[in-house]
Amino acid sequence: MTSEGLKLNFSTEEPAASAARPEAKRESRWDRRKDRKRQKLGHPARSQTQKYTQPARRPAHTPGVPSTAALAAHRLKGYALDLPDAVSPEAQVAAKHQPPGATRNLSGLQQDSLQEHDRQAPSPADSDDDILTAIRLSKQRDAAATEAAERNASRPAAAYEASDSDAYEADVPRSGRNGVITFPNAHKQRKPQKPAKHKDQAAQQALKRAKQGQQRARWTTGEFTHHIDVTPASGTDDVQASFEGLGLAASLAAHLENINFSAPTAIQRAAIPVLVSGRDATVKAPTGSGKTLAYLAPMVHDLMSQQPRLSRGEGTHALVLVPTRELCLQVFDVLALLLRRYHWLVGSVIHGGESRSNEKARLRRGVTVLVATPGRLLDHLENTASFRAHALKWAVLDEADRLLDLGFEQKIKSIFERLDERSAQLGDTRRQTVLLSATLHDRLGELAMLSMHDPVAIGFRDSKSAAKDLQANGHSKALEQMQQQASGGSDDDSSDHEGQLHIDGVEGGPHSDIPSQLRQSYIEVPARQRLVALAAMLRRCLRVPGRPCKVVVFMSSCDCVEFHHALLCGEGGSGPLAGDADMGEPPLLDAPLWKLHGNLTQDVRTRAFVDFGRCKRGVLICTDVAARGLDFPAVTHILQFDPPGEPSEYVHRVGRTARMGRAGEAFLFLLPSEAEFVGALEATGTVMHQLQLLPILGDLPLSPQQHSGKRAHSIENHPGAHTIQQTCMDAVSHDAALNQLASDAFRSYVRAYSTHPASLRHIFHTKRLHLGHTAHSFALREAPSMLGKSNTKNLARQRKLAQHKPRRK
Ligand SMILES: Nc1ncnc2c1ncn2[C@@H]1O[C@H](COP(=O)(O)OP(=O)(O)OP(=O)(O)O)[C@@H](O)[C@H]1O
After folding, report:
1. How far is the CA of 317 from the centre of ligand 1 (A)?
2. Is the ipTM of this complex over 0.90?
3. Once rounded to an integer, what is the mean pLDDT over residues 250-256?
4. What gap in Å lies between CA 421 and CA 108, rounded to an integer?
5. Would you tell me how many other CB atoms lie within 10 Å of the CB of residue 642?
6. Radius of gyration of the chain (CA)
7. By C-alpha distance, which of 592, 601, 551 is closest to 572?
8. Which of 242, 330, 659, 662 to mutate to test the pocket of ligand 1 (most atoms within 8 A of CB)?
């Protein structure tokens, strides 16, 4: 680094001479040249008033930002200038070599700023190239830094607490290697919405709005032009079909067979021909029915058959958006299997919690198929100039309902806006879009409208076939409710509803697609016995030693997961119920335990995801972060320790078992005051059986004295339950760390309880909770104060802040 390189003039003032110079003198050289050009083109010269009274069009100067003149002089001295990310070197070269007026291979934002420069600066033919480049760059920086400074001033502190894949870096100028000045986020500018200039434009906008309105209406009334029903929608059983017969290339079909996808499932039979034909589609099918392959196979078919062969240098051709990091990895695993045969197609994955610079390097080398979470993808679209997505041909929104639930709608809109801008530069905006979901969501239509063209709806059953199914399966309650809905108070019969599709949410009608082989039960557990009931239930599932058994336990908050994980096994197996090998005391649970929730580091999350996926026997305690889409092989039991927020969430949770025709069992714990929730679930077509708690407590270990004693006649005086509860309470009262975890878990449980939707508030209301009994279920002797912050959350927040800390010098 040269010493002079560091001596850049950061003066906040313009040089005195230039500031004092009269406006007329400062502009005259450029204006005279412009006038000469205008005259050559036959335009009149600008009037004197226009010329000399117009204020200079320089952007406001920002403190700490080197002035244009300083940068130009600096550049002429031969020092390096760092290009802002928004204008990549390739883009600059392309822009330089394109004829004036031609559409440049740059984003709308970059074009704007360069066109703005074109209007202001002399033509390259007339002047020194170096000065021009320096001026052009400094103008872009000046403008970006001014806007960034304004944005930072108005940015609330809460921006640091944004969702897991959100990026935040302060827009401070910083000095990098060799004294190069960089503005990390200087290019994060939003293109302002332009008002319609002409009548034609206004009319076009009105037409567009009207079309969107029509489309929205079609979605909300469920009138699709094209609709394919899928019954049955799971298993590979009934129809003799081959992947090749569905339109996939012979080589791909053979490859699928080699990697153990021998025959297509029902949803694949329905979706693959539609997608191979190039149509957009919305796909709804039960959990575990093979939706991932249903879109990946036609996508790979399309990409591998492109002639000439696609190369990674052309950038991204297909994009899969998923809601969670684990799902990213899972979809990528299937993709990698498919791409194994087509070495020229490169797949990759980007998601929150990973190093941005590694991801940038991968994107720079080129990725043909990208699997991503929305937050991180938007970050790269805005900040990674080398991310080429101009030729995008496929966009898939997997687990679309979850994307909506997690509030990604706005981010997805921004993503599509940016993708549209980029495709428009190539003049080709045609893109095939697929939207997949296992349950219905009232805002799916809006998501579909973002970029779909006349989509085929696959698996959205109409009311008649749903009614037939229900009748055949004896779901009289659900059928009654559905008929009431269908009549809607009018005398008109079902002919009106023929072909109509319900997209108004699972809870509104009989839409829950739960694999029929799944056995579902609920258990009424009083608050005081919840902890021992959990221990007993897990022991019951793991009853046969050595037999493969995988249990997923769902809880309502990260703190609850942390507490129960620590209690049942503890870090390194030292929890009060982890047993003591030295004393010959066996652990309460004869299986390893993992935890998975959003406040863990990415490493721990990935390790839990991979290890639990691979194990034959184990327990995963998790929040709803694992409820959607995750395909852990051979999960045998689902235990919903805390009830789900909504019936649709129930479907996703239980969908982690009984996949691909395998057997599975699901248990739901309910407080006696929550028993009404069973009715809400049954109204969606779910069939539940009640189990009694007392026999389940029978699975708890008893001491020899207890064995010889009287049999327990009630859950309150069950000797095994009493021992476990006392052991836990002693541990919590003596161990400060465990006590903190228990108090945090108690608070977060009560808070989570109050977030149930209004429609279920009559069942789940905090007023109905007995706080003393609830404290007992967290092994606390009395209810702690509701004031206090969660330690787990604080740690996660600190980690996130440290990650996003602006990197200075
Ligand atoms: N044609 C096939 N033959 C055999 N196995 C298949 C086939 N298609 C998918 N599978 C397997 O079925 C399992 C479930 O598939 P997938 O995860 O795609 O289901 P899904 O419908 O996306 O479920 P969810 O709604 O829970 O996300 C996976 O283990 C997958 O490997």
Report:
1. 24
2. yes
3. 95
4. 6
5. 20
6. 31
7. 592
8. 659
Ligand 1 atom closest to Cα of residue 289: 21
CA of 252 to the centre of ligand 1 (A): 17
With CA atoms as reference, report the closest residue to 398 among 324, 484, 338, 337: 324
Using the mean position of ligand 1's atoms as its centre, give its distance from the Cα of residue 256 in Å: 13
CA of 72 to the centre of ligand 1 (A): 59
Q: What are the C-alpha distances in Å from 757 to residues 238, 486, 513, 754, 791?
A: 40, 25, 22, 9, 27
Looking at this protein, which amino acid is placed at residue 789? K
Shortest-distance Cα residue to atom 9 of ligand 1 = 290
How does pLDDT run across 147-201, given as a tens digit for each residue?
544 444 333 332 222 233 322 222 223 333 333 333 333 333 334 444 545 556 6
Q: Which residues line ligand 1 (CB under 6 A)?
A: 236, 261, 263-265, 268, 285, 287-293, 438, 629, 631, 655, 659-660
Q: Which tokens is 8 given? A: 């850049």
Closest residue to atom 31 of ligand 1, CA basis:
290
Q: State CA 54 to chain mean position distance.
A: 49
DSSP 585: B
What separation in Å is there between the alpha carbon of 548 and the centre of ligand 1? 20
Q: Among 246, 660, 662, which residue has the most ligand 1 atoms within 8 Å of its CB, making it the best to mutate? A: 660
Three-state SS letters, 600-615: CCHHHHHHHHHHHHHC
Question: Using omega within 30 degrees of 0 as the cis cutoff, is the peptide bond preceding 232 cis?
Answer: yes
Strand bridging mode 181-182 / 174-175: antiparallel
Q: Which residue has the tokens 């769902």?
A: 554
**What is the strand order of the sheet 318-321 is part of?**
226-228, 456-458, 281-284, 432-437, 394-397, 318-321, 369-372, 347-350
Q: Tell me the pairing of strands 664-670 and 637-640.
A: parallel
Average pLDDT over residues 404-422: 88
- Write the Ramachandran bin of 499: left for phi over 0, alpha for psi from -120 to 50, otherwise beta: left
Give the contacts of 691 (CB within 8 A, at least 6 positions apart). 521, 522, 523, 667
Grade residue 354 by pLDDT with cuts at 50, 70 and 90.
Answer: confident
Which residues partner with 396 through β-bridges? 320, 434
- CA dist 389 to 205, 310, 316, 552, Å? 26, 14, 5, 38
Cα 59 to Cα 725: distance, rounded to the nearest angstrom: 69
Q: How far apart are CA 372 and CA 290, in angstroms?
A: 20
Residue 631 CA, closest ligand 1 atom number: 17
* 46 contacts 35 by C-beta, under 8 angstroms: yes
* DSSP string for 92-114: HHHHHHSPTTSPPSS-HHHHHHH
User: What pTM was computed for the model?
Assistant: 0.59
Mutate to test the pocket of ligand 1, among 292, 401, 436 (most ligand atoms within 8 A of CB): 292
CB distance 400 to 444 below 8 Å: yes
Question: What are the percentages of helix, strand and coil residues in the chain, rounded to 5?
Answer: 50, 10, 40
Protein residue with its CA nearest to atom 4 in ligand 1: 261
